[in-house]
Automatic annotation (TrEMBL):
Compartments reported by the entry: Membrane
SUPFAM superfamilies: a domain/subunit of cytochrome bc1 complex (Ubiquinol-cytochrome c reductase) (SSF81648), Transmembrane di-heme cytochromes (SSF81342)
Keywords, alphabetical: Electron transport, Heme, Iron, Membrane, Metal-binding, Respiratory chain, Transmembrane, Transmembrane helix, Transport
Primary location group: membrane
PROSITE patterns xref list: CYTB_CTER, CYTB_NTER
Domain Cytochrome b/b6 N-terminal region profile: 10-223
Source species taxonomy: Bacteria, Pseudomonadati, Campylobacterota, Epsilonproteobacteria, Campylobacterales
Membrane topology according to the record: Multi-pass membrane protein
InterPro entries per UniProt: Cyt_b/b6_C, Cyt_b/b6_C_sf, Cyt_b/b6_N, Cytb/b6-like_sf, Cytochrome_b_N_euk/bac, Di-haem_cyt_TM
Domain Cytochrome b/b6 C-terminal region profile: 239-421
GO molecular function: electron transfer activity; metal ion binding; oxidoreductase activity
Any Gene Ontology CC annotation: membrane
The protein, known as: Ubiquinol cytochrome c oxidoreductase PetABC, cytochrome b subunit
Organism, scientific name: Candidatus Campylobacter infans
Transmembrane segments: 39-65, 95-117, 124-145, 151-170, 191-213, 258-280, 329-348, 360-379, 391-413
């Protein structure tokens, strides 16, 4: 049993019982961050702030929201937006945060790709981060259903229909997910439970895993330099702060992050107050109508690239004994696209950990991938007709080839070059 003495202060009383000083040192006071980083490393803290905004505003909204097919639309568009004091503000905060959080996630992920922060011991950091992206995607989709507008309803029809392509159990699976033969009140109730209860718990658990995964290999830096964190930390603690290559998470690193968060929140509140419309589709201000299909169904901007991959394969492929249907090919391609970036450590087997501009082949590959995703996003919102179909097909096929063929070849070439240089 621990030796307990008379406490000299409130802090000492807690320290003797739950070791708050030791915990603080492990989490922040003596958790070390490389000096050689930029504002791009603040994205993680900004994401944490945005998730907190979503959580708090979600609690405010759920007080007045009615998860009922007959009441949901009015509870959002009349009760919350017109009758509840500042209800419009809570909804705008929630909607804009739900959209902007994906912008920051994409920046965060592509910074990790650019600087090779997914290999050499950092694989679990990357995998847990990509799992967060997938869970946030599910959370965003389930939340998109809740206003029960036209786009909410028909997006749910399209997405749940995709599960019908699962061999043997497809139709039964669709019925189970919907809780009915069509998207209806049971579907809304189930997605409400996912959005408000289950998925936030899973997100919090995965965030903890992501932060814990950072503890051992630590974060990467601008040059991909391998730092002896224990040695550099000793220098810092001995007063050699200028010579040391690291700084403590608190106060040195986090205080700078607070500055970046402050700048970001100015931009965020500007969107909330003056340009909130981009986060709320106009079609979704019409009540859900199962008998009236919208002219053009499309998801939110952050899913457009996956949606274009879904419909990019618009033709059947005959295989002699069977025919692969376009819908099945698109569904498989989209399913792979959704999880594809998790496997970055497998595609890129090169031992080089350096920014892309120091890896010529990888640098070209990186910007081809970014351009391809932009094309997919743009054409994902355009009607699938004429030349749009062919551009979507080329971009969809290009995405798959860039990950499954081009990147492995680039990494093989890098390894051969490195082994040749070593000789």
């Amino acid at each position: 049993m621990a030796h307990i003495t008379k406490a000299t202060s409130v802090k000492d009383w807690f320290d003797q019982r739950i070791a708050i000083t030791k915990l603080w040192n492990v989490l922040a006071g003596q958790y070390w961050i490389p000096k050689n980083i930029s504002f791009l490393w603040a994205m993680g803290v900004i994401l944490t702030v945005l998730f907190t905004v979503l959580f708090i505003t979600g609690l405010m909204l759920v007080m007045y929201y009615k998860p009922d097919a007959n009441l949901a639309f009015d509870s959002v568009n009349y009760t919350i937006m017109q009758e509840v004091e500042y209800g419009w503000l809570w909804r705008h905060l929630h909607a804009v945060a739900a959209s902007v959080i994906f912008l920051i996630i994409y920046i965060h992920a592509f910074v990790g790709i650019y600087y090779g922060s997914y290999k050499k011991g950092r694989e679990m950091i990357w995998i847990s981060g990509m799992l967060l992206f997938l869970i946030f995607s599910a959370e965003a989709f389930s939340g998109y259903m809740l206003p029960w507008g036209q786009m909410s309803y028909w997006a749910a029809m399209v997405i749940t229909n995709l599960f019908g392509g699962v061999p043997v159990i497809g139709p039964a699976l669709v019925e189970w997910i919907r809780g009915d033969f069509a998207v209806s009140d049971p579907t809304l109730t189930r997605f409400f439970m996912l959005h408000v209860c289950l998925l936030p718990i899973v997100i919090i658990m995965t965030i903890v895993l992501h932060f814990y995964a950072l503890r051992v290999p630590h974060v990467n830096n601008l040059e991909g330099e391998e730092i002896d964190f224990e040695l550099e930390a000793q220098k810092y603690l001995q007063g050699q702060t200028k010579e040391s290559k690291v700084i403590p998470f608190w106060p040195a690193f986090l205080s700078k992050d607070f500055m970046y968060v402050s700048f970001f929140m100015i931009f965020f509140m500007y969107l909330v107050c003056f340009h909130f419309g981009f986060a709320m589709d106009p079609i979704n201000f019409d009540p859900a109508n199962p008998s009236k299909t919208p002219t053009h169904i499309y998801p939110e901007w952050y899913f457009l690239w996956q949606y274009e991959i879904l419909r990019g394969f618009f033709f059947d492929i005959p295989l002699g004994f069977m025919t692969l249907k376009a819908a099945d090919i698109g569904s498989l391609a989209m399913a792979f696209a959704g999880i594809s970036l998790i496997f970055m450590p497998l595609y890129d087997r090169s031992d080089v950990v350096a920014p892309a501009h120091k890896r010529p082949g990888f640098f070209i590959w990186f910007w081809l991938l970014v351009i391809d995703l932009i094309v997919l996003t743009i054409y994902g919102k355009l009607p699938p007709e004429g030349i749009n179909n062919y551009i979507g097909f080329v971009a969809s096929l290009g995405f798959l080839l860039l990950l499954l063929v081009v990147l492995p070849l680039v990494s093989i070439a890098e390894r051969k070059k490195a082994s040749g240089g070593a000789k």
